[in-house]
Amino acid sequence: MAVERTLSMIKPDATNRNLTGKINAKFEEAGLRIVAQKRIHLSPAQAGAFYAEHKERPFYGELCEFMSSAPIVVQVLEGEGAILKNREVMGATNPANAADGTIRKDFALSVGENSVHGSDSPEAAAREISFYFSGLELVG
Ligand code: DAT
Ligand code: MG
């Protein structure tokens, strides 16, 4: 398995509850290195652009409103098989289905307010990392 990079977001429900340190500890305990990180506050239009692949889904408006409701932490995680490993650390989209010890099991409030985002493929990771970061900001 190759060393990969993946895009992670700590969502408003988690930043509101001061959970960024506990979430980052789960990444680091799983062997994922945080090679870039910044706190930002998206506009609704920026959230809409990030989630453009979901624009036909019934929850798109709610998703964009939530993601722009408070600051988020965007970060790049690096490690062996980082894309899949991060999805495992995150847990299932709906916290009711998330495995014990995952971020969403421990912290998510609902399927919408589910604490974290992680890229789901190498193509998504490349697109999503470049949405937020320039190459100079990735410090491995
Ligand atoms: P994931 O974040 O696990 O990759 P996704 O890409 O299917 O999940 O959806 C993106 C986000 O949209 C998800 O994290 C929360 C929101 N979402 C998904 N399904 C939803 C639903 N049924 N109701 C409300 N929000 C939903
Ligand atoms: Mg997704």
| Count of runs of 4 or more consecutive helical residues | 7
Helices and strands, in N-to-C order?
EHHEHHEHHEH
Strand content: 15-25%
Q: List unreliable stretches of 5+ residues.
A: none
Helix content: 25-40%
Tell me the strand order in the biggest sheet. Answer: 2-3-1-4
Question: How would you state the average pLDDT, rounded?
Answer: 98
Could you say which small molecules are bound to this protein? Answer: 2'-deoxyadenosine-5'-diphosphate, magnesium ion
Give me the Rg, rounded: 14 Å
Pfam families: NDK (PF00334)
Subunit structure: Homotetramer.
Keywords: ATP-binding, Cytoplasm, Kinase, Magnesium, Metal-binding, Nucleotide metabolism, Nucleotide-binding, Phosphoprotein, Transferase
Organism: Szabonella alba
Brief sketch in words of this structure:
The protein is α+β, with helices and mostly antiparallel strands and 140 residues long. 39% of the residues lie in helices and 20% in strands.
What report would you give on this structure?
The chain is of the alpha+beta class and 140 residues long. It has helices at 12-16, 20-29, 44-50, 60-67, 82-90, 103-107, 122-132, and strands at 3-10, 33-40, 72-80, 116-118. It has seven helices and four strands, in the order E-H-H-E-H-H-E-H-H-E-H. A four-stranded antiparallel sheet has the order 2-3-1-4. The mean pLDDT is 98. 2'-deoxyadenosine-5'-diphosphate (DAT) binds at residues 54, 59, 63, 93, 111-112, 114, 117, 120.
